[in-house]
Give the backbone structure.
Amino acid sequence: MPRFTRLARATTMALLLISTTARADIAIVINEASPVRQLSHSEAVNIFMGRYRRLPDNSVALPIDQAPLKARFYRALVQKDMAEINSYWARLVFSGRASPPQQTETLDDVVDIVTHNANALGYVDAGLLPPHLRVLLTLSESP
């Protein structure tokens, strides 16, 4: 019986470790040369949901969506799934009020755009954060 208990504990610990590392936080990042140092949660919602496209320093914001993280990001940002986000953007685009963030397909694309544009902000898995980008806000996924 003790051998089974040790095995069960070891398996449980391994599963906990895997589950906690599989879902890292999401960091909203900007070019390190930008004068913007932080972003509030409400400012991030307003920028990525097309309500207001200005950074805290009043410069025009260029939000970038990353396809592989998009569902996790919007779940953490506004607690909505992709069907709700797509419906939201369809209404805004149809009415002519706003356009969705530019979409990229890879982390490298986000890093390239943010590195070469001081007003671009994107999001990355915090565990894969490039060292030359500044973190403005970190979002945690709710369980």
